[in-house]
């Protein structure tokens, strides 16, 4: 079974305050061309469900087209951390991360999909070292950021980069049960970009 964990892109899709809102409109209609409808989109690279490249927060970091695609396809473990103000290393003491390359955190903190959240849980930067030690290379969240919304230092972003952990943000996980799935969340091949929207799905394992 395929489970769509992407946030929908439309005129009501919230984006980071001050960033470019998403829009779609027809450049040409079938009535005008006589054959086809042709549309155009305008969007931030970080709207809804998206991948951050290290270049987003490090001017010498890898851009989105330089990231290995195998990061974004393969088995992933969904971990429920709902109702936690801070997600810490201790929260994984009872989680078996053996052989887990991709972890997805379900916080349930982004309640209204049409409004940008006023606050989100904090992810302890020390998680970066834990994930490196366990072999985790991708961390997905149902939040617009892995750092506090008012952070300027982006400590968790930098910790993840230093420990080889890549970032998938803005997932929709309210309908997903904890457990192991197969993830597909491929970013677009945008040359030199700081991020990319993705269509993220989970597939149940038999």
Automatic annotation (TrEMBL):
Transmembrane segments: none
Catalytic activity: N-formyl-L-kynurenine + H2O = L-kynurenine + formate + H(+)
Keyword check for Metal-binding: yes
Binding site for substrate: 16
Top EC class of this enzyme: hydrolase
Swiss-Prot/TrEMBL cofactor(s): Zn(2+)
Free-text comment on the cofactor: Binds 2 zinc ions per subunit.
Residues engaged in binding Zn(2+) 2: 52, 157, 169
Residues of the active site: 56
Enzyme Commission number, as recorded: 3.5.1.9
Protein task: Catalyzes the hydrolysis of N-formyl-L-kynurenine to L-kynurenine, the second step in the kynurenine pathway of tryptophan degradation.
UniProt subunit comment: Homodimer.
Family: Belongs to the Cyclase 1 superfamily. KynB family.
Name of the protein in question: Kynurenine formamidase
Taxonomic path: Bacteria, Bacillati, Bacillota, Bacilli, Bacillales
């Amino acid at each position: 079974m395929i489970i769509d964990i992407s946030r929908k892109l439309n005129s009501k899709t919230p984006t980071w305050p001050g960033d470019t809102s998403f829009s779609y409109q027809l450049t040409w209609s079938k009535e005008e061309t006589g054959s086809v409808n042709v549309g155009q989109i305008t969007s931030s690279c970080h709207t809804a469900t998206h991948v951050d490249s290290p270049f987003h927060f490090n001017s010498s970091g890898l851009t989105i087209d330089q990231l290995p695609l195998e990061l974004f396809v393969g088995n992933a473990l969904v971990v429920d951390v709902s109702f936690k103000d801070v997600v810490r290393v201790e929260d994984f003491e009872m989680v078996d991360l053996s052989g887990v390359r991709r972890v997805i955190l379900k916080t349930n903190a982004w309640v209204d999909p049409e409004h940008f959240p006023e606050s989100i849980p904090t992810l302890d930067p020390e998680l970066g070292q834990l994930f490196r030690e366990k072999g985790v290379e991708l961390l997905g969240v149902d939040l617009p950021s892995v750092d506090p919304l008012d952070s300027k230092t982006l400590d968790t972003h930098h910790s993840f980069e230093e420990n080889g952990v890549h970032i998938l943000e803005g997932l929709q996980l309210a309908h997903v049960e904890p457990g192991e799935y197969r993830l597909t969340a491929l970013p677009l091949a945008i040359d030199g970009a700081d991020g990319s929207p993705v269509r993220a799905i989970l597939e149940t394992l038999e």
